[in-house]
Amino acid sequence: MKYFSKKLSLAASTAFGCVALFGCSSSDSNNAASTTGMTSVESAVDVCGDYTAYEDGLGNTYCIDKTTGAVIYSVLVDGSIVYTTLEESSAASSDASSTDVGTSSASTASNAVCGETTNPTSIVGDLYFYSDASGSYYYNITDASCTKVYLTVASSSSAAEVTSSETLATSSATATSSTTGVTTSSSSIASTGSTPVVTFSTSGVSVENNNNCVEIDGSVVKILCAGIYYFSGTSNDGQIMVTASTEDKVYLYLNGLTLTSSDAPIYSQSSDKTFIVAVSGTINTLKDGNSRTNVYSYTKDGETKTDTTGAVIYAKDDLTIKGSGTLNVTGNYNNGIHTTKDLKIKYDDEFGGAPTITVTTKNHALKGKNSVAIDGGTLTLTTSEGDGIKSDEDDATELAEGKGYIEITGGKITVNSGDKGIKASNYILIDDSVSVPTLTVVASGDSAKALKADSSIYIYAGTLNLTSKKDDGIHANANVYLEGGTVTVSALDDGVHADNNLYLNGATVNVTTSTEAFEGVYIYANAGITAVYGTDDGWNAAGGSKNEGASASTGNSWGGNMGGGAISTSVGYIVITGGYHYISVSGNDVDVLDANGTATQTGGVLILEILSRSGSSSGNLGGSGWGGGTGSGSCSTNQAGGLIDTDNGYTITGGVLLGFGSQTEEYPSCTATSYTNSNYYGSSSAAFKPQGSGSMIIYGGSVTSVSVVDVSSMTAVNFPNGLTYYYK
């Protein structure tokens, strides 16, 4: 473990404005030559935070932005920590031989050294930094041989060792229950010591290694400046409050902390970014009260503002949660974890993996107004009234810049919500990164979708089990892209709904129950394996938008439960070019494939089935109930839908079509023959065994006639609902 004293030399602090990770003060320069009281605090990895730590074998650590290759700040062997500042660029350009211990950003071509043809990414004193395919390296310009010194990624440490005995004990105090005005301001106070360790207890709060950045006010611990802080112990009414500068990054290490508060146990009022780290092997529990009495006053951008905390963990800045420990959050007042900026839950090898987080709360479990991004962890989110995960950015400028999104790229997430499962005011993206996400959502409230986006929904990977007890499983106000992964949906209304286009491009999708399984203006089936079931339409291509909360009985433009009204326009198209798709329905007045415009098939496999008789009378094709005309293949058609119902025609030029039922409005070819669920039907190249029985099989594409088929020598494709299609 490395030893850092968090100091700057007098020369560095004078020349470079003393911009240090842990702050600086006059006392730091006085101790420049001394290591007395130096504390074994953090590994290089911990000091670099979100940046990547590299070492040169000489005791120096460089915190590098992996995207740009630039050195953001350096931790030198003597303990000095110096940031890059733009003011140093001109000095570095005019005097490349400067020996000041500082860091500068390269700005002109004159900075190129040792045969390099480009500017260095950074300059730290005599060291000129570059990167290539092998990694980051530097030249020391005092070395005439121009030796490349490659950096190695620093190893991580699991915890900090504290050797200093500086302790500040305070007496316990109880917060008043009356309305309290709390005034704070962004702090310019600088660190003068080592990493603080804060311990809560029933008798008060104690601080080891107070570095002039920890202030105790009764049972409230205020963090005033950037750095790393450890918290442990138990309090029945305590609070951690961050009031640092808006340029500061603050790390709160929860190291076995149980904190109950009448307000928010953790409130980050001011910083650049706040990081909460659940230390490996620890269990940390946070709980708030069921009301708020404190009104906080603070200054931001020269303007006085007031605020009331709205969550157990409440932040006014970017909030990141990481570490491999456990964090339990109980919200009695409103939300569980809430920031008005970006919320991230991260997998990080440097911290031993990703956290285990359990949130049980009244309103929203996780809320990032600007965005929510999750790439790891085991999350169990339960709400009685609100959404499981929410981003509700409503500022037009922020939305135009892409805010309001939710991205899930890893982890195991379970949501049981009183309202929507996952709701974004922009888009939702589900993909994989360091792991493949597993997502289980049960949404129970009125008009509560499992996934709901005001823009589009993109699913590229993962295992998703989505349940909406009263509404749609997946609902996007723009497009839905089912590109990959395995998606299982159970919904009272639509299984998957897009106000615009629905793309089936490679996902495995199983809609086990719905009113209308797939719904969009355009449905493009290009790839993937899907099996869906509906009690109204299987696939429904229709124009218009489905207003959230509209009653099915009023006949909105998308139809509704049990038919729920006519479509107002003949807009709606289905295009099938690939994939394997099984569509089934049962009930009265149902359509397996329904398009308000046209349906076209040029490839892929399409299996249609009516599981129970449709229609409002006992007549079959051409009978008293329908009075349809006679079609090719001695089958009759009707004007009430059934297997295929379009306004402007169904065309097939390739692929496979097999449909099993007792009625249809149109078909390419048909045979009026009885079938049962005991046999496979089709041709020598394509066959399927229906679930029920009926009197008509329609077919098209490569299937030119149908009969009972022996599939013993054919290749199987398994649908996600357990049925099998065979081909040769």
TrEMBL record:
Signal keyword on record: yes
Signal peptide: 1-32
InterPro entries according to UniProt: Cthe_2159
Keywords in alphabetical order: Signal
Protein name, entry field: Uncharacterized protein DUF4353
